[in-house]
Amino acid sequence: MENFEDLGFSKVDYAREERQGFPEVIYGEGKAVEHIEPIMGKLIERHGKVMVTRVAKEKAEILLERFPEAVYDSTSRILLYGKPVLNFGGEVMVLAAGTSDLFVAEEAAITAEWMGCKVSRLYDVGVAGIDRLLAYRDDITKASVLIVVAGMEGALASVVGGLVQRPVIAVPTSVGYGTHFEGITPLLAMMSSCASGMSVVNIDNGFGAAYQAAMIMKLVSEGVHHETSVS
């Protein structure tokens, strides 16, 4: 069986799941519906599920006619075919500083769920009203991996990083005023954070943060399984 199929405009990677643990995900922005549709069909045929990120509503409406069992989330702009299956123990918590950051936070949350993670959400807990965050301190410290989404100066990630003993994945967003520079300011702030154990993904990259979180959860799950098998 071939590892990929050449459609002329695209080479569909069927071996991605075997190599990396998760099937190929389609990045929808910039792709025409005429290109997304056949790629979706091929991946569904091979894997029984597919996720398309960054899909405009107009494109999603056309694709839903072709794939009526698919589901579209307008906040994250994600189109899903196939129900998520919980594969890992533990929990990924997605935190968002403000409501304006939800388009990135939901991209992270939905992606992590699709990849088999149990996900909890804690939104609108930015440092401008830090009591809102601290009210959920017990829940925060119980999470296995934390994805922290913030725009403006990006301070939420550092605060959360100082509260937990678990991996923190920081996601800067393009939400903010002038000198925020469309995400550059929180990106640099997060990369310069004094909170240990924190990693940073690109601006607005909720998908990348979720993928990293799922890889961590997968590794832990495999380790537990290995120890059980050996014993």
UniProtKB/TrEMBL annotation:
<dbReference type="GO" id="GO:0016787">
    <property type="term" value="F:hydrolase activity"/>
</dbReference>
<feature type="domain" description="PurE">
    <location>
        <begin position="90"/>
        <end position="222"/>
    </location>
</feature>
<dbReference type="InterPro" id="IPR000031">
    <property type="entry name" value="PurE_dom"/>
</dbReference>
<dbReference type="Pfam" id="PF00731">
    <property type="entry name" value="AIRC"/>
</dbReference>
<dbReference type="InterPro" id="IPR039476">
    <property type="entry name" value="P2CMN_synthase_LarB"/>
</dbReference>
<dbReference type="GO" id="GO:0006189">
    <property type="term" value="P:'de novo' IMP biosynthetic process"/>
</dbReference>
<protein>
    <recommendedName>
        <fullName>PurE domain-containing protein</fullName>
    </recommendedName>
</protein>
